[in-house]
Amino acid sequence: MGSPPHSHSSVDRHSRESSWSRFSGSLKPGSRKPLHFVFHVFFDSRGASRPQKPKITMKSIKFEQFKIQAGSDFTEVAIDMITMNSTVKMIYQNTVTFFGVHVTSTPLDLSYSQINIASGTMKNFYQSRKSQMSVIVAVMGNKVPLYGSGASLSSSTGTTSHPVSLKLSFVVRSRAYVLGKLVKPKFYKKIECDITYDPKKPNVPISLKKSCTYD
């Protein structure tokens, strides 16, 4: 009764300042609070949402070259070898509202019958908050020995004459820095795609929309 109209807002402001002081104190060197707890307090008690995982969508792969040729390995044993060039396209989306992420990846490995026949390296990049970009990676292999697996691929034309089942696999790693480098949330996405190369359709992008799993 008789309290000035601004009294409640002053109390609320003082409460918020006190809460922030207690939170700031928990960040001092030597604090025993685990980092994941600090991260939880920052994103829940401050009225913001928990960090969302980045979204990766595989788009397509295109084979520019798929060549089978006779050769020899390092022991001079005659063997079929494969040389191939391909291009993989994907979309990387940073869905987080409050911070950007640094993105790296393991090599993109393309295998046939458990033999790695091609590989590609994705360039590291930084993705700002609430944004996305198209990522293109060249996946190539040069005179890779096929050993026993090559018998079913070789033909008189220097390439395969029937569809070939392949598997693409790699891991994308995303890291953000919140409050400097004190809190560093990490996100890992393992991607595997089952691909069928059709020699009758060279240089035609193969959709990966329904061919991949994301773990």
Describe this entry's structure for a reader.
The protein is 14% helix and 46% strand. With 215 residues, the chain is mainly β. The chain has 2 domains: 7-45; 55-214. A hairpin with a 5-residue loop joins strand 1 and strand 2.
Low-pLDDT windows of residues? 1-24, 32-39
- Domains (count): 2
Cα-atom radius of gyration: 26 Å
Mean pLDDT across residues = 80
Tally of DSSP β-strands: 11
Any chance you could write out the topology, listing elements then pairs?
Elements: H1 7-25, H2 35-45, E1 55-72, E2 78-94, E3 101-105, E4 108-112, E5 115-120, E6 125-127, E7 131-145, E8 164-175, E9 186-197, E10 206-207, E11 212-214
Antiparallel strand pairs: 1-2, 1-10, 2-7, 3-6, 3-8, 4-5, 4-8, 8-9, 9-11
In a nutshell, what does this entry contain?
With 215 residues, the chain is mainly beta. The protein is built from two helices and eleven strands; from the N terminus they run ααβββββββββββ.
